[in-house]
Amino acid sequence: MKRILLILITLGTVSCNVKQATHDDHEVTSKKDSVDLMSLYPELAERINKNETTPLNNYFKLTTETDSTCRIEWGNKNIKKKTKVDYNFNIARRFHLDWESDKYLVLKSGTGTGAWFSLFLPLDSSAQESTIENTLTKDEKRNLVVAEQFPGTDTIMYIFNLETKRTQFIMDDKKCETFYHLCLDTVMLTKTQLYYKWSTPHKYMDNPKTVERRLEIKI
Length: 219
What we know:
Radius of gyration: 28 Å
Number of helices: 3
Distance between the termini: 95 Å
Shape: globular
Order of helices and strands: HHEEEEEHEEEEEEEEEEE
Structural class: alpha+beta
Helix content: 10-25%
Mean pLDDT: 86
């Protein structure tokens, strides 16, 4: 009986030691397998937590939020704000100043082939950031932005008023065979009109059919 009891105690001790060794090995393996994702983007690492000053004396800087994402702090001598959304390192490293006004600081980043977005950072203590995909042109004095509509409808782009939040949709009956920005040769806002050239099936083919359009701005 004593012999059996001794065997059981010995087995229990070995079992505990095996479990402890397995746990320790796992911790060592986890440490070895962990990757510093920031090291994959040296151009981002150089910018982290550094103010980037703009011509109108505003600033923005990228700050780490998690081990793979950033948020953006922005402001001036009167305000300091941070985005509610965080962006993965691959997107964050592409942010650059696009334009600014007395009401907005606007950054742009690419997200893939034929895809990008503008991040609108209001220079106001109460308003929050917003994004618009595939922006084409703007009128910063009137807070107007023109953006591409994605394929699938007759609406090829739209004008958006950042202040009033009103939208004017632009349609064209000439069919584009690809992303609409590949059929748009020129997009301009004048004082009263939106001007653009529309080339179909797209502007990179030989001898595309190109028309000029001038539409009244109604918002």
